[in-house]
Amino acid sequence: MTKKFHIWTSGCQMNVHDSEKIAGIFSEIGYNEAGNSNDADVIVLNTCSIREKAEHKFYSELGRLKKAKKHNPKLKIAVAGCIAKQKGEKLFKRFPYVDFVFGPDNIESVQGWISDNGPRTSVIGEDPDYHTKLLPVKRAGQVRAWVSIMYGCDNFCAYCVVPYTRGREKSRAGHEIYKEVQSLAEQGFKEITLLGQNVNSYGKNLSKSIDFPDLLYKLHEINGIQRIRFVTSHPRDFSEKLIKSIKDLPTICEHIHLPVQSASDNILNLMNRGYTYKEYKKKIDMLRDAVPDIAVTTDIITGFPGETDADFQCTINALTDIGFDGIYAFKYSKRPDTKALDLPDHVDDKVKSDRLAVILKLQESITYRKNRALEGKKMEILVEGVSETASDKLTGRTRTNKIVNFYGDVSDVGKPVNIKILEAKQHSLFGEKI
Ligand code: 5AD
Ligand code: SF4
Description:
Elements: E1 4-9, H1 13-28, E2 32-33, E3 42-47, H2 52-71, E4 76-80, H3 81-87, H4 90-94, E5 100-102, H5 109-115, E6 121-123, E7 144-148, E8 150-151, H6 162-165, E9 170-171, H7 174-186, E10 191-195, H8 212-220, E11 227-231, H9 240-248, E12 255-257, H10 265-270, H11 277-290, E13 295-302, H12 309-323, E14 326-331, H13 349-372, E15 378-386, E16 394-398, E17 403-406, E18 416-424, E19 429-433
Parallel strand pairs: 1-2, 1-3, 3-4, 4-5, 5-6, 7-10, 10-11, 12-13, 13-14, 17-19
Antiparallel strand pairs: 8-9, 15-16, 15-18, 16-17, 18-19
The site of 5'-deoxyadenosine (5AD) has 12 residues, from strand 13.
């Protein structure tokens, strides 16, 4: 009987895409995807360690699998991703029912582990050539695809674990990325999202001189790809040349995710972000001047060590000042190895939570106001499939990355469709085909 695998994924888009690569390897060695974890011969937990909460989620998932293993001792359990990289062998001690541990650079080791019939081992070393490797990918969708353009991060923001889990920054060669996108276009994909921890510094390690805007101009030439997105941008490296490329190239979508983290210069400095709020705001103004209806989203951390009420007030003011289309906000969470651990004046958990609640509430009204302003407007959406929340409707996104649900025909999937927005909701829009 054909064996089956199941992958549980937590964390960012890199992790979601890494899971597609892990699935690609299982498919190549003849495994099928299990409908759920109860039905699987091998379960992989692809983990995230960005915040304590993500780590707890993993431990509770792993706890659940203890019973499954007791029930079926032949079940193989592997731990992948950022927690795997950080904890390595230690995971075996605490969870003796784990069989294999592999880091973000070691996805290809799954193949050897399976063919050797799963001996208990861990592979977590940084692979200096990982960015040159071409792994098979089993993609989750048929319309939108992720494409890694770089791995790792050299920024060392004081709160962030990523440089320790994903290693130093390395860009993939431009021609390899081009080939992958061309092949996606041939397979019928319409939208790609370029992935990297800091896409704006793409190309630094490459011998052939190419930067991120150059890459965009190249990829724009590929026939069949209607939309190009990218995450994540770092404000310090967000250049005028990039703004010009967004303005020039019709395939680049009018949405930028530009994490500000805080709007207090004191906190930005302690975070080691390399910009002031004024510099950040100037870049947003330039971007909006060049591309008037561009949507801007951001990340915010509340209660970073040393954050006073006055610092926090700066961030509140920035929310109104800039008017983001959406935000992801988090309470500061202590992470192993990071510089922020040693900073004085850690903020009380209750204060962090209260500040988070204030931020989220304020943004809710701003997002809703922005969505309301779209009522009556005509927008092009790329249809992705049947809505997960309402199975009688189709769903897609505007170029500005807003989710739109509408009544349509499944033959619309994968096509751009013009929609009139009828009703704004908090997290999505409802419209009709025109
Ligand atoms: N605590 C809280 N939020 C964090 N982020 C990264 N590290 C931490 C941390 N230690 C947030 C940042 C980043 C997003 C992906 O996660 O806002 O942009
Ligand atoms: Fe989580 Fe960061 Fe690792 Fe992504 S890179 S999985 S966000 S810790």
